[in-house]
Amino acid sequence: MSNLNREFALNREEAYAVSHQTLNRLLGAVLTLLVMLMLKQHYSTAAADRLTWILAPTARMTAWLTGASPCWESGVGYADYARGIIIAPACAGLNFMIMAFGLAVFCGLLQIGRLPALLAWLSLSLTVAYSLALLVNTLRIALSMWLYQADIYTAWITPERVHRLAGVVIYLSALGLFFKGLQPIIGRYCRRFDRQSRRIRISLPHWWPIGWYLLGAVGVPTANLLFHKPITGYGEHCITVILASLVFWPAVRLVKWFNRRGYRRHAGKNTDCGG
After folding, report:
1. Domain that includes residue 207, residue range
2. Is residue 190 part of a domain?
3. What sections of the chain are H helices per DSSP?
4. % of the chain at pLDDT higher than 70
5. Rounded distance between C-alpha atoms, residue 58 and residue 162, angstroms
6. How many folded domains does the chain comprise?
């Protein structure tokens, strides 16, 4: 009888722990969504002078990487017209920061159950997403500067379209690499700060980054149609982003598959020779 009571008590404690961790994860998800909505609202209404916290370091990093001299212009942002760049609110990289932040937190929610560890992970994810956005956006601007001077343009291949395609490739690649790096980082974080929580055994599919990217780049602007009129070029933006993503992501996966297959064949030949 005592064994049954002990087993019942253990099961009750385990059920309580699981329900408590579930509530913590729901709270973490709600907080994350609130932060994402606040960032999006701030970005959609702020002028350049209220976005200097991300525009200014982006301009400094761009100047260091490319040798450009972007200078502050009130109401515009940072510009170097001689090099053909304007680092304006539309090019702040804040949408990518929101995507990276949400991706990091929601991947972590599957593994982290204790509230202090969750809140710390949320703060860490926001810091990492901000730093990653600065780095990736600087690379995108540098690439855009090079493409702007390239002799590739026609009546149909315009600088704006090439600029948008380059953004899709850069941002989607960065999000995919970030997603891949998150898995071992979250595992180490849990072993260090949250060993006792019950893990949710879900293996996220390889298409998760592209789904997350399309949700942010196409889904959010589409949802805004419920409250605002479509911005100029909305239709072309959505079509370009969707088509470019659906071509680029499978192409990358196909290249990785061929490389993995070639490596296995090479390893098999080496094994046969060694035998």
Report:
1. 2-45+93-274
2. yes
3. 2-45, 52-66, 94-109, 115-148, 159-193, 208-214, 220-223, 234-274
4. 84
5. 21
6. 1
| DSSP-derived secondary structure for 56-110 | HHHHHHHHHHH----EEETTTEEEETTTTEEE-GGGS-HHHHHHHHHHHHHHHHT
Q: Tell me if 83 is assigned to some domain.
A: no
Q: Is the dihedral of CA 177, 128, 44, 30 positive or negative?
A: positive
Tokens at residue 89, please?
């609110």
Give tens-digit pLDDT for 32-81: 999 999 998 888 888 889 999 999 999 999 999 988 889 998 888 999 88
- How many CB atoms are located within 10 Å of the residue 170 CB? 20
Q: Is the pLDDT of residue 272 over 80?
A: no
CA distances in angstroms from 43 to 34, 54, 96, 151, listed in the order given: 14, 11, 12, 34
Residue 231, helix vs strand vs coil? coil
Is residue 65 included in any domain, yes or no?
no
The answer as to whether 185 is a domain residue is: yes
Residue 99 pLDDT: 94
**Residue 68: partners with Cβ closer than 8 Å, 6 or more residues away:** 62, 80, 83, 85, 145
Q: How far is CA 133 from the centre of its chain?
A: 8
What pLDDT shows up at residue 120? 94
How far is Cα 51 from Cα 275, in angstroms, rounded to an integer?
Answer: 63
pLDDT for the residue numbered 220: 83
Whether the CA torsion 199, 115, 219, 143 is positive or negative: it is: negative
Average pLDDT over residues 91-113: 91
- How far CA 152 is from CA of 17, 162, 240, in Å, comes to 60, 9, 18
CA distance 181 to 153: 36
Residues ≥6 apart with Cβ < 8 Å to 100: 128, 129, 132, 133, 174, 175, 178
